[in-house]
Amino acid sequence: MKYCVLIIDGAAGLPLLERSGKTSLELAHIPNLDGLAREGLVGLCRTVPRGMEPSSACACMSVLGYDPRVYYRGRSAIEARSMGVTIGDGEVTFRCNLVAVRDGRMWDYSSGHISAAEAGELISALNQSLGNNNIGFYPGVSYRHILKLKGVEATLEASCTPPHDIPGRPIAEFLPRGPGSELLRDLMKRSQAVLKDHPVNARRRERGEVPATMIWLFWGSGRVPEMPPFRQVYGLRAALTSGVDLLRGLGKMMGMDILAIPGVTDGLDNDGSAQVAGALAALEDHDLVAVHVEAPDEAAHAGSADDKIAAIENIDREVVGELRAWKGDSLRVLVMPDHPTPIAARTHSPEPVPFVLWGPGFKANGAQGFTEAEAQERNLLLDPGYSIMSRLVEVGN
User: What are φ and ψ of residue 38, in 5° steps?
Assistant: First the structure.
């Protein structure tokens, strides 16, 4: 038996009043996902334990079979693991977004989804101007980067707000505050002068693109607990493919092999066909492969229903269709979002998400499509969410 976990990041959501009260999943043309739902076991899964933040780090940890209450201690350290940034004694990390602020308001949490190459130049300039033996900036993917600090563990006590939670709102209300926040606010303020006239931003303005006007610091964390390897917990050799450092970091922490597949990105340009082809090829010498697609979540953060629907349809056509058609060994498939990302809110929410378990051993339970409403009607809720991995890999479900 082989296994595939497909995480459709942020695909779930709430009814859109301007779209006849339908969700993005209901509006999307997804014949392959609907086919899985008609043929498989459909229900809801609470990926975010009550009282915990509805982050992808927490939720994806559940999807991949680990209890966030035991292993989740902050997101930035997970991304640092993917990037090869070590965290020593007395060191802490923060997610460092390149954002665009205009007239004192959060204009764009991603600086127009700046390219990794352009962002790398800006992070290098920040490191040269603001970095020292105790302050280091490390480039990641697109707008997502890491700041590492030494000797200032009090910064972890600061209250920070993710920039994608405050689109169009005055940033003064959401700057880091409380104990340990002074250094974070100072670095954010000083970053503006470094970025203002940088050649990368000059070129972006000339092209009519959104410039990166400052850094935004949040999701601070120190060292995270060591996680038992996936193979030890579930008895399977696993691999993972994703376009973002968070999932690659989680995979590394779980002892999974990380697949380097050209064309895998965090946006609508993700080459889903190449991603699923590389994932299925990995099943030749792995038992399980996890495929994470970021695009629906990014579209929802941008408030674009059209892009979110398009992203879901791309996944259905390019990825799910290939999973259904695979002619290899017997294949069991789990498909689900990690968390909802409602278009109106433009940020994550903690409600349970729909899932479908498909393949040998899973019996249909009456669903007619892969939607939030169909999953709700099945009266099947998996809580705690991390139990879903056992449902997938145990024989006889």
Answer: -70, -30
Residue 31: other Cβ atoms inside 10 A: 14
Q: CA-CA distances (angstroms) from residue 269 to 261, 262, 294, 321?
A: 14, 12, 11, 18
CA dihedral 95, 96, 100, 102 (to 10 degrees): 90
Which amino acid is it at 19? R
pLDDT at 397 over 60: no
Q: CA torsion angle for 75, 150, 127, 223 (degrees, to 10)?
A: -20
pLDDT above 60 (res 395): no
Element (H, E) at 204: helix 199-206
Residue 379 in tokens:
């009266």
Determine the Cα–Cα distance for residues 388 and 47; give it in Å rounded to an integer.
9
Is residue 39 within 8 Å of residue 358, measured between CB atoms? yes
Residue holding tokens 């697609």? 293
Contacts of 311 (CB under 8 A, 6+ apart): 11, 268, 293, 295, 296, 298, 299
pLDDT in tens, 137-181: 999 999 999 999 999 999 999 999 999 999 999 999 999 999 999
What is the token pair recorded at 244? 């973002």
Local confidence band at 289 (pLDDT 50, 70, 90 cut-offs)? very high
Q: Which residue has the tokens 């915990």?
A: 52
What is the predicted pLDDT for the residue at 209? 98
C-alpha pair distances (Å), 20 with each of 17, 24, 342, 348, 367: 6, 11, 15, 22, 22
Query: What angle is formed at CA 357 by the lines to CA 353 and CA 358, rounded to 5 degrees?
Result: 145
Encoded tokens for 134: 């105790």
Domains of the chain: 2-69+226-393 (3.40.720.10), 80-221 (no CATH)
pLDDT in tens, 346-386: 999 999 999 999 999 999 999 999 999 999 999 999 999 99
User: Are the C-beta atoms of 219 and 162 separated by less than 8 Å?
Assistant: yes
Specify the 3-state DSSP secondary structure of 27.
helix
CA distances (Å), origin 375, targets 12, 355, 357, 365, 380: 11, 7, 12, 10, 8
Predicted confidence band of residue 328 (pLDDT cuts 50, 70, 90): confident
Closest CA to 95 of 109, 113, 107: 109
